[in-house]
From TrEMBL:
Extent of Gly residues compositional bias: 1-14
Location in or out of the cell: Cell membrane
An annotated Gene Ontology molecular function: urea transmembrane transporter activity
Catalytic activity: urea(in) = urea(out)
Protein's recorded name: Urea transporter, putative
Electron transport among keywords: no
Entries under InterPro entries matching the protein: Ammonium/urea_transptr (IPR029020), Urea_transporter (IPR004937)
Main location: membrane
Domain of life of the native organism: Eukaryota
UniProt topology in membrane: Multi-pass membrane protein
Ranges that cross the membrane: 104-123, 135-153, 159-179, 191-210, 253-283, 319-336, 343-363
Family: Belongs to the urea transporter family.
One GO CC annotation: plasma membrane
Length: 415
């Protein structure tokens, strides 16, 4: 199977040189049973995702782990390891990271913060689609549901809390499947964490009036955010951790490292998004406690990762759109925070879902913005490499000041 890209164009009327990327047929067959990426599973296009991986073969991956499809193939035949693999991928998928190592590091951060969060991780693996389960897609909403229930209950280790997590984690999977069929099939947009939001909202409305499930909601504080270096550092990394209800700086740093293991670009986008959330919170006069706790940062974290290389090819213009989307997420957080407060319901990740749904949904209508087809979504580094491979001047790039790209394999004759 051949994949031809335009090479570096010379001046003086010379025809552009072509670079032929040769991939053997047996490579395609060998890859055919690989586990698919987050978006590929939601689109249901296995063949397209396999072809995308083959086309991207050779993109420099020496400094990041990516989705580790080889490891997934290796453990398929071993039940306990297979279960561990997709359980850890479920943890990683909360941040769009389809990677078991990232999931393991995230799980360590969760255990440090709240040991019961691990329970939510384990009970959520009930997917009907075996491929989706192996990619961690059926787990991430259940993980968030379990984390939310544990976070807002006063008695974390009582039996009723443990029991109630199970059915609600299951409900989140069913809602995810329903929304996936509608959103992917109709608008070509992934369902993000809508299933978690709806499930957690149902739980809050249904059970908070009961005495045995008394909520433990955070209280507001007076304005006056301290802009010293330590306060900003802690607020930014707490924002990264708050995606999974981890409110300590240490957990936030650990989770940032987890993202970097799979995708350094995603880790940078997470820090950027949380920083924008802190700035927006300060600009609108939010209470200092909310900013310091990272509550203004966690929705922009997800919004920045999604737009900053996950669902758009990384470019300078995409970076601008990432900043805009992160700010949009922050402003919507302020809206949902006020709108849901009378019912005692947190904003959850509603701001991220609605803001990013709009930005991803209008991708094809924006000039000079190139959305990534859902079956081809992997990690930003691979998206960037594929775009470079297709761009003019590929030969110069491969032999220029970017040494990690020199490892590209299967480059054929330059005509």
């Amino acid at each position: 199977m051949n994949n031809n890209s335009s090479g570096g164009g010379g001046g003086g009327g010379r025809a552009p040189r072509e670079i032929h990327v040769e991939v053997e047929e047996e490579d395609y067959i060998e890859e055919e049973d690989d586990d698919l990426s987050f978006a590929a599973m939601e689109s249901g296009s296995k063949k397209a995702a396999v072809a995308a991986r083959v086309r991207g073969k050779g993109c420099g991956g020496n400094y990041y782990l990516g989705t580790m499809p080889e490891w997934s193939n290796l453990v398929k035949a071993f039940g306990p390891l297979d279960f561990l693999d997709y359980t850890l991928r479920g943890c990683g998928q909360v941040y769009f990271m389809n990677n078991p190592i990232s999931g393991l590091i995230l799980l360590i951060g969760l255990v440090i913060e709240k040991p019961l969060l691990a329970v939510g991780c384990l009970i959520a693996q009930i997917g009907v689609d075996i491929g989706a389960r192996r990619a961690g897609l059926t787990g991430y909403n259940g993980i968030l549901v379990g984390a939310a229930i544990v976070t807002f209950m006063k008695d974390e280790w009582d039996i009723p809390t443990l029991i109630i997590i199970v059915p609600y984690a299951c409900i989140s999977v069913l809602i995810w499947m329903f929304l996936g069929n509608i959103m992917v099939g109709t608008w070509n947009i992934p369902p993000f964490t809508f299933a978690f939001n709806f499930t957690a909202t149902i739980f809050f409305i249904a059970y908070f009036p009961l005495a045995m499930f008394t909520p433990s909601l955070p209280t507001a504080a007076s304005p006056g955010f301290d802009w010293d270096t330590q306060a900003v550092f802690e607020a930014v990394f707490k924002g990264v951790g708050q995606v999974m209800f981890a409110g300590s700086t240490a957990s936030g740093v650990i989770m940032t490292l987890a993202l970097a293991a799979c995708s350094p670009i995603a880790a940078m986008m997470a820090v950027l998004g949380s920083s924008i959330g802190v700035l927006v919170g300060f600009a609108v006069g939010a209470d200092a406690a909310g900013i310091e706790a990272g509550l203004w940062g966690y929705n922009p974290v997800l919004g920045a990762i999604a737009v900053g290389g996950m669902f758009y090819y990384p470019t300078v213009k995409t970076l601008v759109m990432t900043v805009i989307n992160a700010g949009f997420c922050s402003l919507l957080f302020g809206f949902f925070k006020v709108a849901l407060a009378p019912w005692g319901i947190p904003a959850f990740t509603f701001p991220f879902c609605f803001a990013t749904m709009v930005v991803v949904g209008i991708g094809k209508s924006l000039p000079d913005f190139e959305p990534i087809p859902l079956p081809e979504v992997t990690v930003p580094e691979e998206h960037l490499c594929k775009r470079w491979q297709r761009s003019r001047g590929l030969y110069n790039i491969l032999n220029g000041p970017l040494p990690f790209l020199n490892s590209v394999e299967n480059i054929g004759t330059i005509n």
